[in-house]
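Hey, can you fold this?
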Amino acid sequence: GGALLPSFLSARGLWAGAWRYTAWAGSLAWATSAYCSMVRGPQFEPAPSSLRGRVCLVTGSNSGIGYETSKALARAGAHVIFACRDETRAKAAMAKLVEETQGVTSEQLTFVPLDLASL
């Protein structure tokens, strides 16, 4: 069955077009995969309890990348210091992290006021 397809398409002048389409589709799939990998970055999740006893200071941990970093570190058992400008936003982020992340306690999280705008 499959061996007849090239000769069938070749007899009708479609074989070269089929190869071009296949090469184009493969290139598109490769480019899409590479783009997604670059945009999302490497996926890494530390093992639970692998950072127990460690202290990590994260700047800007009340939102964005800092918050996600703090979440991953706390989930791995580290004591995370939230170094932020606004105490109310940091405390709200800490409460949210404890609420939505299983295994994280409020004792693991500490707030330290830090404003790096004057540097």
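Oh, and this one too while you're at it.
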Amino acid sequence: CRHFIPKDEVPPELQLASSELDADVLAERERVSLLPAERQMILARGLRRVYKQPRTLILLLLVLIALGDVALMLYLQWGLYASLALNFPLVIILVLLSRWWAPLLYVGVRKSVHAVRGVALAS
């Protein structure tokens, strides 16, 4: 799910000016710009990826909730099908609502690693 990916801005010190780009990157950028865009299979601009470690406390809380759910099902002696009948719709609802709760995994986490690419791809 795309909602689990941090969306931090690229810091200015990681943004490359055109003069700092590798000669191969500049040549590829020029080659791609001359190609007709409507006939290309892939066109990507401004590729970047942000890596961030989620908060351990929130992950621990999620694991404890899942373990508590399993322990409750075992205590109540629910069968496998009854457990699946309850938990499967809950998981679907959680995934559908991840737009609102997934960003909370990164609240307060300041350290992020950025991988930035300055080339466009075409085939």
